[in-house]
Write a structure and sequence with these properties.
Number of helices: 10
CATH superfamily of the largest domain: Medium-chain alcohol dehydrogenases, catalytic domain
Structural class: alpha/beta
CATH architecture of the largest domain: Alpha-Beta Complex
Helix content: 25-40%
Number of strands: 17
Length: 344
């Protein structure tokens, strides 16, 4: 059996769309028919070579999707044929079966435990979760990456108290999901900074109290005049070194906390004065918002169900698999926020 797929053959080049041969399932692997796949900034970084040397070329790509189970390998206990599922790079329960190799033009195409830019995908059992039944439809695709990373960074990592302030640096899909969780947790004010007016408008619809276009306004001045000079928490989602270098300066002394989500290009180094730590501020990392699908996905989906109209605006751009390179270009140019590949 073959499947159309988008293949990363060489970094800094367009993905190649072609048919690949699906291998026989091993123990712990599941064959999924994908209906929708999200595109994350991580894929842009992979394609553009910003993550450093790619030792796995050629390989499949993508880590956020929804679909239905076609076939299960041996020892599968989490799902069965015809189950509707979310695919995520975050590990859930079940077997960690690792990746696989597809056949293509007499060669092998590598794939990790989950890939999603294809009509059918072989996925490790622990990268699959049954879809919670609450009517989100296509929006469940965001549970694969954007929602757990952004929402979890606020809820699981920062663990704020109601009424505390938060600054979200970057209003892409992950940042907007962080805003959604901040509003749900009754944080005030919620400040969002970005370079795009359209993304900032969307942030306001998600519940941001203050938006700052940093190409025209000084973020420090806005925080000084409208937030008392500092914030309790910050979520960094840009991966820009200049933003990373400044993030600690926005925090309040004696308890301010920042979490870093954005991926800086390989080899770049951030610089922070040790005095920021001497003032009692904390800089935190996270792995997907410290989210665990089995524990968190149902909670996130309930919060998402209260924001369906706005989430549809976040993920309104639809592309066919054959047009995936157009989607990637528009995402780079910030013409779309969280494009969705709708499979045939």
């Amino acid at each position: 059996m073959k499947t159309p797929a988008a293949i990363l053959v060489q970094t800094k080049k367009p993905l190649e769309i072609d048919e690949i041969e699906i291998p026989k399932l091993r123990e712990g692997q599941v064959l999924v028919k994908i209906s929708h796949s999200g595109i994350c900034g991580t894929q842009l970084n992979e394609i553009d070579g910003k993550k450093g040397e790619d030792k796995w070329l050629p390989h499949c790509i993508g880590h956020e999707a929804i679909g239905s189970v076609v076939e299960c390998g041996s020892s599968i206990s989490r799902v069965k044929a015809y189950d509707e599922v979310v695919l995520s790079w975050l590990k859930a329960g079940g077997i960690d079966a690792g990746g696989c190799q597809y056949g293509w033009q007499g060669k092998q195409v590598n794939a990790g435990p989950v890939t999603t830019f294809q009509h059918y995908a072989v996925v490790s059992e622990n990268r699959i979760s049954k879809i919670p039944v609450n009517g989100l439809g296509e929006l469940f695709v965001l549970l694969g990456c954007a929602a757990p990373t952004g929402m979890g960074a606020v809820r699981n990592v920062l663990r704020p108290e109601p009424g505390q302030s938060v600054l979200v640096l970057g209003a892409g899909g992950v940042g907007l999901c962080a805003v959604m969780m901040a509003k749900y947790l009754d944080l005030k004010p919620v400040i969002v900074a970005d370079l795009s007016d359209s993304r900032l408008e969307l942030a306001s619809q998600f519940g941001a109290d203050i938006t700052v276009n940093v190409s025209r306004q000084s973020l420090s001045e806005v925080i000084s005049t409208q937030a008392g000079g500092c914030v309790d928490h910050a979520v960094e989602v840009t991966g820009s070194i200049s933003v990373l270098n400044d993030v600690m300066s926005y925090l309040r002394p004696q308890g301010g906390r920042a979490v870093i989500i954005g991926n800086a290009p390989a080899g770049q180094i951030m610089e922070i004065s040790p005095s920021q730590f001497n003032m009692g501020k904390s800089l935190l990392g996270t792995w997907g918002g410290d989210s665990h699908p089995d524990r968190d996905f149902e909670v996130y989906s309930e919060i998402m169900s209260q924001n369906t109209a706005t989430l549809h605006k976040l993920a309104e751009a639809r592309f066919a698999l054959n047009d995936v390179n157009i989607a990637l270009s528009e995402m780079r140019a910030k013409q779309v926020t969280r494009p969705i590949i709708k499979m045939g």
